[in-house]
Amino acid sequence: MFRGRSLLCLLDFETHEIEKMLDVSFIMKNYVYHNNVPSSLSGKRVALLFEKPSTRTRVSTELAVSMLGGIPIVLNKQDLQWSRGEPIEDTGRVIGRVVNGIGARVLNHLTLVKLKESSGVPVFNLLSDLSHPLQALADLMTIRERFGNNLIKIAFVGDGTDNVLLSLMAIVAKLGLELHIATPKELKPREDLFKIISEIADDTGSVIEFHEDPYDAVRGVHVVYTDVWVSMGQENIAEQKKKLLQNYRVTSDLMKYAVKDAIFMHCLPANRGEEVELEVIDGPKSAVWDQAENRLYTAMAVFSLFI
Length: 307
Prior knowledge:
Layout: H1 15-33, E1 45-50, H2 56-67, E2 71-76, H3 88-96, E3 101-105, H4 109-119, E4 123-125, H5 133-147, E5 153-157, H6 163-175, E6 178-182, H7 191-204, E7 207-211, H8 214-218, E8 223-226, H9 238-244, H10 252-255, E9 263-266, H11 278-281, H12 288-306
Parallel strand pairs: 1-2, 1-3, 3-4, 5-6, 5-8, 6-7, 8-9
Catalytic activity: carbamoyl phosphate + L-ornithine = L-citrulline + phosphate + H(+)
Pfam families: OTCace, OTCace_N
EC number: 2.1.3.3
């Protein structure tokens, strides 16, 4: 089903395939907790390329490969001739000759496409400007740990162009869930991507709605999610975005409009006092540390299935 394929975007996968990735993520977590992780990557080499700094992705993917018996090769961009102008296609051709898979955290999604086309091995999106599929899998894993497979409502408050949100929208549409997005009208997702997501949602019965008022979006939901307002590479528009989003902070007052047992989620890193109040992210409703831990198990699941 998966062997030899790449994971660049969850929109490329069928609903039952995403469910399989989630099922195996839970299995991997159980293996880790019982200290009987299978050596499914024994003898296999996985290159992990980082064009952007990373904490959770770096730790989770390197650990995932090594815990499954594989050999992780971690390379920052400045370690490679890529940083001096060598085409990424040449990097892919060379590395693809000696490894069994490549994970890459990049600024531009097209870099992943070029790696996939040039390397001849499975390529995994460890974050791009378009999507963050391993994060979305960890998000749904975290939600199901709290609420089971019930039809829960999710709210995202913040930047509607956010790459984490785009992956969240994709998995919500594929799984037939309900998502309410609070964002300024100036920060809506790309029309071409939203058209694809909307067509999938129509087929699965998923509900994805936009609101300009965050209180409307959060009312009656089980999950309140946000992300940083300014991502790496957006420094030139930082002040503009902060001005647009100043009324989209997740506060203790906003959380009161969600259901009583609602949880707060954030993919991290977080700017306390900007997109979220300290009392929320460090409070009893916060599930962000579970999210961060679950990044390990989704990485283990994907690598074991695809490589």
